[in-house]
Each structure stands twice: as structure tokens, then as C-alpha cells.
Amino acid sequence: MEHFMDEAFAEARRVLVAGEVPVGCIFIYHAHGMDKVIARSGNDVNATKNATRHAEFLCIDQTLEYCRQNGLLYRDVFPKISVIVTVEPCIMCSAALHDLGVKEVIYGCANDRFGGKTLVDVPFVTNNIIIKPEVKGGICADEAMALLKEFYKGENPSAPIAKTKR
Q: pTM score > 0.70 for this model?
């Protein structure tokens, strides 16, 4: 899985240069005895001014397109997908991945502010305890945290202008 995590980090570094929070994600489809990357992305929130354009959602969109192009039912494909992401998916992304029934989620560093495992037990909250992907964290966590720290050293161009106290 380290090779695939390297690919996710490449996406995170790519979007860091573009001024995005450096989260990279890839989806690996396990079918016919092969592991194939069918989706890859980094965050695109700042460029699009759309808070739902997290790396995981962009990979979900790419996977749906992959299914359309290949005549596959998405409900058959998602349970065969491993999600590799540099930072623990937020609650929104975690809920979507659980609802789609992905096989597993492997992430780098924890997300102690918005994490869908660290902060909230997403399957319990969404009453979706039947489909429960395996979730493993801490893979290359130091590298993931270093990228986040690099981003937050700078200024987020999409952040609202701070209001001074009156």
C-alpha cells in the first residue's frame, strides 16, 4: 500500500502548489485479480469556491464516470475499492464513503477537528452499521502532517477577511 500512498502524496503536493489544503486521494479498484487506480485527485475547494470539492468527492465523481464508461453498476464497484488518502476523511466524506460501501479507507494523519473516525462514529450516526469499511490510519502520518503544516504556514487566499474587534 505504500506505493499507492506515494501516489496520494503526489496529488497532495500538486494541490499544495495550487493553494489548496494538501489532501490527496486515490481509489484502487480490486477486480479480476488486479489492483487498478481508477480515480485520483487532490482538494479543489479554494479554486472552485465549493466546499464539497474534497479529494474524496472528486474521486467519487471520477469513479461514477468510470462506471458509466465501462457499463458497470456503481453498487458493484464501490465495495471493491480501497480509498487511500493522506488525511483522515472529514465527516462529510466519511459518510459518503460509508454509504457507498467502499472496501476500506487507509489514511495518513488523523483529522482531530473534522475526522469521520477520530471525531464522530459515522456508521453509528448515519445508522449505517451494516456496511462498515475497514479504516486504518497512521500510514505516513508525519509526512501528511508536514504537508498540512506547510500549507497553514502561508495564508489561505480563500479564507474570509478577519474582522477586528470594535
A: yes
